[in-house]
Amino acid sequence: MPDDRAGLGGLGRHVRGWHAFALVAGALAVMPQALSPYLLILLCYALIFALACLGLNLLLGTSGLLSLGHAAYFGMGAYAGAFLYRFWQLESLELYLLCGVLAAGLLATVLGYLCTRATRIHFTILSLALAQGVHALFISGAVFEPLGGVGKGLYLLGGGGLYIPRLTILGALHQPGDFIPALYYVILTALLASGVVLRRIDRSPFGHALKSIRDNDVRATFIGLPVRRYRWYAFVLSAIFVGLAGGLYGQLGRQITPDQLHWLFSAQLVLATVLGGTRSFLGPVLGAFAFVGLDEVSSWWIFGRKAVMGGLLIAVVFAFPRGLAGAMAAAADLLRRRPAG
């Protein structure tokens, strides 16, 4: 008779994974009742940052491509809906997010096609250069000029930044005291749903093909994988999720600036992803929470905040050279071995 223990073990791990997912989702669902307003806003930022890092890791960890230009798609996810609000009175959060995702996806389709023509190190440089070109269009006011006098006035008034009011959620306009809890559930839903989709992509034949390309693109070419096309697809999908995070970030902060398009913001996303661990699916989530937490701790120092933040990051990197996810996996493995020892 065939041995079904391997299949039963895989099924058991699958069930345990869904149990853990349900437990975490349930714990996060009660946070609006358990946290103060300030901590709830901080948690919203961490969840949005986690979503952006998960999207970036589809390109960095799964495909093996380092992009220093994903801030362009993060910022585009916020700016697209903001322009529609200013000129076409868009007031629905759902349409605002959809417009941001579509704009980020369209921009990534064009720029990603150019970037994935290059090899790995040149890909990084090209992604940085093209994204800085997008940033220059906003910081110089070139994007505002086709909108006429109103566009020029908005640029002169905000220096490239735009203000967004509280938008309606499912057709309802929430009062200031109720808006953040309602938006929190939108952010949480977006993160959980995106996590499920990205996990399915990671375990799909497409995801395994991306990992094969990451490990040895020459061999992947010889076995018939369309390397450039798959990298292009991964680039666009990654930008779509990062654009969704950017739209949520814009509504949470209610203020969009060209800084969110700058390459330094891309570097923060990369740093947080690497901090958590690029080879673990949940590593970017851990890294995002750690990055936001370290940034909050460094804000306690009025002077030298960036130096404190840099010192904290260096300490964490030296303490966890394999990333936070790698350290947790090693600790769990050690605990499993102790009873046998």
Question: How would you describe what is shown here?
Answer:
This protein has a domain at 34-261. 76% of the residues lie in helices and 1% in strands. It has 15 helices and 2 strands. Helix 4 (71-88) crosses helix 5 (93-115), helix 5 (93-115) crosses helix 6 (120-139) and helix 8 packs antiparallel against helix 11 (227-253). The two termini are 33 Å apart. The model has no long low-confidence stretch (mean pLDDT 86).
Give descriptors for this structure.
mainly alpha, 15 helices, 341 residues, two-stranded antiparallel sheet
Biggest sheet record: 2 strands, antiparallel
Structure class: mainly alpha
Order of helices and strands: HHHHHHHEHHHHEHHHH
Overall residue-averaged pLDDT value: 86
Q: Using DSSP, what is the number of strands?
A: 2
Rg, Å, rounded: 21 Å
Q: What fraction, in percent, of the residue positions are helical?
A: over 70%
Strand content: under 5%
Strand order of the largest sheet: 1-2
Helix count equals 15
